C-alpha cells in the first residue's frame, strides 16, 4: 500500500553559498501493507523524523519515490483523507486559537469542502479516544499532555485514514499515560483497520504494538524483522538495542 | 470580540482606546466637530486667550486653535495611519512570502530588506524628500518606502517560527494547501505580532511627521498640522509659551495612548486568555453548588 523505493535525502549545511551537505537518508526502501503496523526504530538523529516528513509528503526526497497505492504522496489530493499523522510535541500540535472541535474537524473539512458535517461526529471521535463531549469547546492550553495527545489522535482518525504516521507519538508522555495511549492506539487500529508507521526510539513500545520493525541507523535501514522473530536478529547493532531492554 | 473584552478589562488600555476612538472620529468628521473654519484669519483676535467662542484661544493670525487641532488630526493621525497601513501591508506580504516559502525567494527578499535597512530611516526620508520635494504626500511615500523592510523582517521571523510548528505540519500532511495554512494557521497567530509592531511604530511615525512639519519639510501652510502649529508657536515661545501647550500636549497624549494600547494589545491577543465556555459554565455551576451547600449547612 505504502512503498518507499531508494529514497535519498540530504540537507544543505551552512549558509546560502555553502556546497556542503549532510546526507540524512541513504537508499531507504520498504513497504507497509494494508492494516500493518510498521515500527521504525533508531537512535535520535538517525533520520527517523525526516523519513516521517517524506512519507507525509511535507518534504520531497532528493531521489527515489514514496507512493501511496501507486500514487506519489507529494500530491496532496492523494494524502487528503488517506494519510494522517500524530506528532511528538503535544504542546504545539494544536493551533492555540482552535477549540478541540475545530482542531478535530480540520482534516474533515479539508477533505470535503462543501459538505456539512454532522455535529455528532466530534462527540463520537472524542468518545473513541476516551474523552467526554465537554472537551469540544476547550482550548489546547487547557488540556493536559495526555488529553492533548488524545485530541491529536482523534484528529488523525477523523477522516478514517488508511495509514497514520506516528512520530514519537507517546515519547513525551508520562509512563502510565504512555501505556494508556498505546492501548488506545491498538484498539483504534482494530476498529478502523488502519496501518501505522510507528516511529520511535523506544523499542519496548514498538515491540508491544508493531507487527514488524525496521531498525534504522545513520539514515540507513540496518535490518527488517517480523516481531515474532525479534529474538533472532542478525546485525550487531540490533542485538545491542535488544540487549539494552532485556537487561 | 474576545480581544475587545480583554482590552476592556485593562483600565489604562480602555482609556487609551477611547481617546484614540474619539480622536479618529473627530478627525474624520472634522467639519462637524470644529467650531470654526481652521484657516479663517481674524487679525483682531491675535493671541487672544481662551474664551467661550474660541475654547483654546487664537494663534498669531487669530485662527481658532481648537479647530486647527481638530483639522490637524487628518494629516497628523489619519494620513499617518494610512501610510502605516500601506507599509504594514507591503511588509506583511513580503514577510509572509519569505517566511513561508523559504528558499531562494526568502534569500532574495531579505537581501533587498538588508539594503533598505542599511540606511538610517531619517536619512532615507530626508533624501527622498530632497529628491521629490517637500509636502505631505512625499513624506508619506518616504515612510512607506523606508518602513516596509523593517516590518517584513519582523513578520518573516514570526512566520518562520510558526511555519515550523507541528499544527502546520499536520495541516500539510492532511493535504491542506498553502493558502489554507496561511489563512487558518499563520495569520491568526502572527496577527498579534503584526498588531504590536504596527501600533508601536504608529506612535513614532506621528512624532516623525510632526517633526518633519516642524522643520518645514512636511505639511505646508496654511494647512493645519500639529507639528506646524508647534513651529508657528515657536516664534513666540518666550513671550507666549502657552501657545505650544495645545499642540504639544495633544501629540503627547495621542502618542502615549497608542503606546499604552500597543502594550496591552500583546496581552489581549494571547490565546491563553481564551477560556472555553463550558469550563466557565462549570465553574459558575460549581460556585452555585457551593453556595447551595453553604446554605444547607447554615
Ligand atoms: N530541516 C532540516 N535542515 C537541516 N538538517 C536537518 C533538518 N531536519 C533534520 N536535519 C538533520 O537530520 C538529522 C536527522 O534528524 P531527524 O530526522 O530529526 O532524526 P530523528 O528523528 O531520528 O531524531 C539530524 O542530524 C538533523 O540535524
Ligand atoms: Mg525525531
Automatic annotation (TrEMBL), chain A:
Keywords: ATP-binding, Nucleotide-binding, Transport. Gene3D superfamilies: P-loop containing nucleotide triphosphate hydrolases. Transmembrane segments: none annotated. The keyword Transport applies. GO terms for molecular function: ATP binding; ATP hydrolysis activity. The keyword ATP-binding applies. SUPFAM superfamilies: P-loop containing nucleoside triphosphate hydrolases (SSF52540). SMART domains: AAA. Residues 2-243 form the ABC transporter domain. Pfam families: ABC_tran. PROSITE patterns: ABC_TRANSPORTER_1 (PS00211), ABC_TRANSPORTER_2 (PS50893). CDD domains: ABC_NikE_OppD_transporters. GO terms for biological process: transmembrane transport. Belongs to the ABC transporter superfamily. This is ABC transporter ATP-binding protein. It comes from Paenibacillus sambharensis.
TrEMBL record, chain B:
GO terms for cellular component: plasma membrane. This is ABC transporter permease. Pfam families: BPD_transp_1, OppC_N. It is a multi-pass membrane protein. It comes from Paenibacillus sambharensis. The lineage of its organism: Bacteria, Bacillati, Bacillota, Bacilli, Bacillales. Residues 73-262 form the ABC transmembrane type-1 domain. SUPFAM superfamilies: MetI-like (SSF161098). Keywords: Cell membrane, Membrane, Transmembrane, Transmembrane helix, Transport. GO terms for biological process: transmembrane transport. It is found in: Cell membrane.
Amino acid at each position: 500500500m505504502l512503498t518507499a523505493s531508494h529514497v535519498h535525502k540530504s540537507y544543505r549545511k551552512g549558509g546560502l553559498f555553502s556546497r556542503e551537505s549532510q546526507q540524512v537518508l541513504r537508499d531507504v526502501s520498504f513497504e507497509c501493507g494494508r492494516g500493518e503496523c510498521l515500527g521504525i526504530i533508531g537512535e535520535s538523529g538517525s533520520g527517523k523524523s525526516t523519513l516521517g516528513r517524506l512519507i507525509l509528503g511535507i518534504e520531497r526526497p532528493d531521489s527515489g519515490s514514496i507512493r501511496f497505492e501507486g500514487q506519489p504522496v507529494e500530491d496532496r489530493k492523494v494524502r487528503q483523507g488517506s494519510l494522517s499523522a500524530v506528532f511528538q510535541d503535544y504542546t504545539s500540535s494544536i493551533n492555540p486559537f482552535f477549540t478541540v472541535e475545530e482542531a478535530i474537524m480540520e482534516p474533515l473539512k479539508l477533505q470535503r469542502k462543501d459538505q456539512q458535517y454532522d455535529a455528532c461526529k466530534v462527540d463520537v471521535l472524542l468518545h473513541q479516544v476516551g474523552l467526554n463531549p465537554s472537551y469540544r469547546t476547550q482550548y489546547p492550553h487547557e488540556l493536559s499532555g495526555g488529553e492533548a495527545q488524545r485530541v491529536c489522535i482523534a484528529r488523525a482518525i477523523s477522516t478514517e485514514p488508511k495509514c497514520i504516521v506516528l512520530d514519537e507519538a507517546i515519547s513525551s508522555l508520562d509512563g502510565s499515560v504512555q501505556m494508556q495511549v498505546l492501548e488506545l492506539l491498538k484498539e483504534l487500529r482494530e476498529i478502523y483497520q488502519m496501518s501505522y508507521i510507528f516511529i520511535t526510539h523506544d523499542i519496548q513500545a514498538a515491540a508491544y504494538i508493531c507487527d514488524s520493525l525496521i531498525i534504522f541507523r545513520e539514515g540507513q535501514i540496518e535490518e527488517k524483522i517480523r516481531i515474532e522473530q525479534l529474538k533472532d536478529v542478525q546485525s550487531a547493532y540490533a542485538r545491542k538495542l535488544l540487549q539494552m531492554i532485556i537487561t | 470580540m474576545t480581544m475587545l473584552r480583554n482590552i476592556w478589562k485593562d483600565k489604562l488600555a480602555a482609556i487609551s482606546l477611547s481617546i484614540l476612538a474619539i480622536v479618529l472620529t473627530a478627525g474624520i468628521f472634522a467639519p462637524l466637530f470644529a467650531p470654526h473654519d481652521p484657516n479663517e484669519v481674524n487679525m483682531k483676535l491675535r493671541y487672544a486667550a481662551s474664551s467661550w467662542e474660541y475654547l483654546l484661544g487664537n494663534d498669531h493670525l487669530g485662527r481658532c486653535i481648537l479647530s486647527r487641532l481638530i483639522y490637524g488630526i487628518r494629516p497628523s493621525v489619519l494620513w499617518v495611519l494610512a501610510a502605516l497601513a500601506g507599509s504594514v501591508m507591503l511588509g506583511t506580504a513580503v514577510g509572509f512570502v519569505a517566511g513561508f516559502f523559504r528558499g531562494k525567494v526568502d534569500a532574495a527578499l531579505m537581501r533587498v530588506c538588508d539594503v533598505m535597512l542599511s540606511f538610517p530611516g531619517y536619512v532615507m526620508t530626508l533624501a527622498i524628500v530632497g529628491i521629490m520635494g517637500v509636502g505631505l504626500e512625499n513624506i508619506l511615500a518616504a515612510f512607506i518606502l523606508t518602513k516596509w523592510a523593517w516590518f517584513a523582517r519582523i513578520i518573516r521571523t514570526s512566520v518562520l517560527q510558526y511555519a515550523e510548528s507541528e499544527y502546520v505540519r499536520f495541516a500539510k500532511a492532511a493535504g491542506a494547501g498553502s493558502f489554507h495554512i496561511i489563512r487558518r494557521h499563520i495569520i491568526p497567530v502572527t496577527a498579534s505580532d503584526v498588531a504590536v509592531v504596527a501600533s508601536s511604530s504608529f506612535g513614532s511615525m506621528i512624532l516623525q511627521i510632526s517633526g518633519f512639519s516642524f522643520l518645514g519639510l512636511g505639511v505646508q501652510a496654511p494647512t493645519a498640522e500639529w507639528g506646524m502649529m508647534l513651529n508657528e508657536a515657536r516664534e513666540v515661545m518666550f513671550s507666549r509659551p502657552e501657545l505650544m501647550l495645545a499642540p504639544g500636549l495633544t501629540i503627547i497624549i495621542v502618542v502615549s495612548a497608542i503606546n499604552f494600547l500597543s502594550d496591552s494589545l500583546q496581552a489581549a491577543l494571547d490565546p491563553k486568555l481564551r477560556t472555553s465556555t463550558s469550563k466557565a459554565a462549570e465553574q459558575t455551576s460549581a460556585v452555585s453548588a457551593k453556595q447551595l451547600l453553604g446554605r444547607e449547612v447554615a
